[in-house]
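Protocol step 4 of 6: structure prediction from sequence.
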Amino acid sequence: MDRQIFKDIRDVKADLLAGVDAVVSLAAISNDIMGKIDEELTLEINCRSGIRLARLAKEAGAKSFVFASSCSVYGFAEADAKVESSSLNPLTAYAKSKIMTEDGLRPLADENFKVTCLRFATACGMSERLRLDLVLNDFVACALSSKKITILSDGTPWRPLIHIRDMARAMDWAIQRNPKEGGNFLVVNAGSDQWNYQVNDLARTVAQEIPGVDIAVNPNAVPDKRSYRVNFSLFRRLAPDHQPQIDLKTAVRELKDGLEKMSFKNSDFRDSDFMRIKVLTGLREKGYLSPELRWNGAHH
């Protein structure tokens, strides 16, 4: 059966989960800026509702629960690449909500209910509902629309990336993994060591694939504290058949082709609906979304 039900994660009832084998929880306020606007709301949607969903899934007899966590839980990390047991340093409400959800899911896991928290690297890649508030997507859009990549930081921060199709591959593995591999409750960094890049490297790769592009670095930028490298060896060991397969150049080419098909030329896209925060605040201002981000579009 293939059904699509539109619902707020805060309103999911038990009956919706009857007969469900596995749940992949992706619903979240996924934007640092939105998290700052209302930290309590971020915790309500990202954390409390996610844990409640897992509890309902468990009661309904689901066997597997997959939670999309984030490498952003490591925050600012100068030293070695972070492993799952490294100390956490969440710098945003979003990152804090991910840690609190992991902690809240842990006691629910048992031999009948397997929980996998995938700490994803930063997403990138072409999709039907494209977001350009992701570093690589942003750079390709800059290159095509203005022939200039503007780096908002000094270019040195480290950032691990993962293509969205490889994220789906990791979820597929997490749904069906054997609890003998990793236990009933598992937190694992999801990505690949080859995809730890400095922001400069990302910009240079985009400029190689899209000729005639200038790169502008902001030497006076306040140091971007979101800098961390991540070690993905546990994921490599546990999920050898579901490893990331898409490389950086392929991701850039796909974004370029996709944006060109859309005749994308908006050099002011950082102030457009391709940015998640603009969509949310816009819908709020028009009254389609309540201040609590509840949909009342039907009233308009």
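Step 5 (inspection) to follow. The radius of gyration is 20 Å.
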